[in-house]
């Protein structure tokens, strides 16, 4: 069956990413021989939010295809789905958890993104030749500029 499931904005790496408010998912449910359920959840979406390096608009496509087996008559805890209770499926939590697990390590506008200048915060993609004079270290004064009283 096809269902529309709300997706809250997601905090990740100090930034916030959105999935357009909701996502259309495909849910397949079948009964197992042991009076349980086998569930399959599929959806894809595009997360949008800032590039983690340069803060310009970026996004990441996410494709989800996950399964759960719920076999409450079995003593094996791995066969009890945390998303199923009294025959009700917490689809919203499952959609969100699957999304979090599928996140890329970093969301960037491009692999070659140069990020921001650590000194002035300028976007180095726009100004790759950008340079600063090295800051003088105030602990060291030039001997030639000191007046040494004999
Ligand atoms: Zn970037
Ligand atoms: Zn700079």
Overview of the molecule:
The chain is mainly beta. It has one helix at residues 91-101; strands at residues 2-6, 10-12, 15-17, 22-31, 37-50, 57-70, 84-85, 88-89. It is elongated, with a radius of gyration of 26 Å. The termini are far apart. The chain binds zinc ion (ZN) (2 copies).
Distinctive features:
elongated, binds zinc ion, 150 residues, 7% helix, four-stranded antiparallel beta sheet, mainly beta, two-stranded antiparallel ribbon
Topology:
Elements: E1 2-6, E2 10-12, E3 15-17, E4 22-31, E5 37-50, E6 57-70, E7 84-85, E8 88-89, H1 91-101
The structure holds zinc ion (ZN) (2 copies).
Strand ordering within the main sheet: 1-4-5-6
Structural class: mainly beta
**C-alpha-based Rg, rounded:** 26 Å
* Low-pLDDT runs: none
Bound molecules: zinc ion
At a glance:
This protein is mostly beta strands. It has 1 helix and 8 strands; from the N terminus they run ββββββββα. Bound molecules: zinc ion (2 copies).
């Amino acid at each position: 069956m096809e269902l529309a499931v709300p997706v809250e904005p997601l905090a990740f790496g100090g930034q916030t990413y959105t999935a357009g408010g909701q996502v259309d998912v495909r849910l397949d449910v079948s009964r197992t021989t042991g009076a349980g359920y086998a569930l399959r959840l599929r959806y894809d979406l595009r997360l949008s939010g800032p590039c983690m390096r340069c803060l310009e608009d970026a996004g990441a496509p996410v494709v989800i295809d996950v399964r759960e087996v719920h076999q409450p008559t079995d003593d094996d805890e791995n066969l009890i789905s945390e998303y199923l209770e009294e025959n009700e499926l917490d689809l919203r939590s499952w959609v969100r958890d699957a999304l979090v697990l599928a996140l890329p390590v970093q969301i960037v506008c491009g692999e070659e993104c140069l990020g921001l200048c650590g000194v002035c915060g300028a976007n180095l993609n726009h100004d790759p030749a950008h340079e600063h004079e090295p800051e003088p270290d105030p602990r060291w004064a030039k001997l030639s500029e000191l007046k040494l009283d004999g």
